[in-house]
C-alpha cells in the first residue's frame, strides 16, 4: 500500500496526443505514490528495466474479420513486445497480457522473450473471476469480500467455465460452501454460468464500449497477487 511507482506508458505515434491527455489526468489526480509518468512511442524507452509489464494493446476483432486475421495482426504486436522485453526489461519482469485473445498473445510474447522465465508470463482471467464473485455476492446480499475461491477454467472468452465447487461464502461470521449458502443449484448450474460467460458482451451492449474500470481493477488485483502472493487458503484465477 505504500509502494511508490513510476508508470511508463507506451502507445503508437499517432496516439501520442491522446496519451498526453492521460498524462495530464494522472498528474491532476495528485496521487501520492505516483513518482513519475513517462509517456513514449519508443519501445527501447518503454521496456527499459521494467519490474512489471502490462500488455494492454491488441488489435480488436472487427466486422467481417476471421479469427486468423485477428491472430495475424496480434502476432506482430506481441512478437515485437516480447522481443523488446527480452532486450530491455529486467529478467525478473512480471508480464501480464490483457489484449485479447489474451492466452494466445501471452504465448506469443513468451516465445519471443526466450531469456525471461516462462512462469513470469500470465494473462488476465481475473475480470471473469471478479465477475463470478460479484454475481454470487449480489445473489446472497453480501459483499464480494465475503466470497472466495471461485475458479475460472479456460480462457477469457465465452467458452470459459466459472466453477464454484470450491467457493466459500462468509455468512453470519461462518464460512459455508456456495451451494449450501445459496440452496439454488439450478441458478448456479445455469444462469450464473451464462451471466459470467457473457458479461463482457452485456457491458458492451449497455455502454456501447467494452469494460474499462472493471478491467483496470482486475489488472491491479492480478498484479498485487503476483507480487505479494494470495492470502493463506485462498486462490485466484490467472491465465
From TrEMBL:
GO terms for biological process: malate metabolic process; tricarboxylic acid cycle. Keywords: NAD, Oxidoreductase, Tricarboxylic acid cycle. It catalyses: (S)-2-hydroxyglutarate + NAD(+) = 2-oxoglutarate + NADH + H(+); (2R)-2-hydroxy-3-(4-hydroxyphenyl)propanoate + NAD(+) = 3-(4-hydroxyphenyl)pyruvate + NADH + H(+); (S)-malate + NAD(+) = oxaloacetate + NADH + H(+). Its EC number is 1.1.1.37. Residues 125-238 form the Lactate/malate dehydrogenase C-terminal domain. One of its GO terms (molecular function) is (2R)-hydroxyphenylpyruvate reductase [NAD(P)H] activity. It comes from the Eukaryota. It is an enzyme of class 1 (oxidoreductase). Catalyzes the reduction of aromatic alpha-keto acids in the presence of NADH. Plays essential roles in the malate-aspartate shuttle and the tricarboxylic acid cycle, important in mitochondrial NADH supply for oxidative phosphorylation. Catalyzes the reduction of 2-oxoglutarate to 2-hydroxyglutarate, leading to elevated reactive oxygen species (ROS). This is Malate dehydrogenase. The gene is MDH1.
Amino acid at each position: 500500500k505504500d509502494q511508490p511507482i513510476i508508470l511508463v506508458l507506451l502507445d503508437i505515434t499517432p496516439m501520442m496526443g491522446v496519451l498526453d491527455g492521460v498524462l495530464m489526468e494522472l498528474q491532476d489526480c495528485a496521487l501520492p505514490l505516483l513518482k513519475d509518468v513517462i509517456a513514449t512511442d519508443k519501445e527501447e524507452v518503454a521496456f527499459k528495466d521494467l519490474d512489471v509489464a502490462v500488455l494492454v494493446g491488441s488489435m480488436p476483432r472487427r466486422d467481417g474479420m476471421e479469427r486468423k486475421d485477428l491472430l495475424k495482426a496480434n502476432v506482430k504486436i506481441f512478437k515485437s513486445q516480447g522481443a523488446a522485453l527480452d532486450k530491455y526489461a529486467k529478467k525478473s519482469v512480471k508480464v501480464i497480457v490483457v489484449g485479447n485473445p489474451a492466452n494466445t498473445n501471452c504465448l506469443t510474447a513468451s516465445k519471443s522473450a526466450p531469456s525471461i522465465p516462462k512462469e513470469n508470463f500470465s494473462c488476465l482471467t481475473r475480470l471473469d473471476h471478479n465477475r463470478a464473485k460479484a454475481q454470487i455476492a449480489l445473489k446472497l446480499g453480501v459483499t464480494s469480500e465475503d466470497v472466495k475461491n471461485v475458479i475460472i477454467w479456460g480462457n477469457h472468452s465465452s467458452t470459459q467455465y466459472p466453477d464454484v465447487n470450491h467457493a466459500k461464502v462468509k455468512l453470519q461470521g461462518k464460512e459455508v460452501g456456495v451451494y449450501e449458502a445459496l440452496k439454488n443449484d439450478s441458478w448456479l448450474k445455469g444462469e450464473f454460468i451464462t451471466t459470467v460467460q457473457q458479461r463482457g458482451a452485456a457491458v458492451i451492449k449497455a455502454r456501447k464500449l467494452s469494460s474499462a474500470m472493471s478491467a483496470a481493477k482486475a489488472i491491479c488485483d492480478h498484479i498485487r497477487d503476483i507480487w505479494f502472493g494470495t492470502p493463506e487458503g485462498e486462490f485466484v484465477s490467472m491465465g
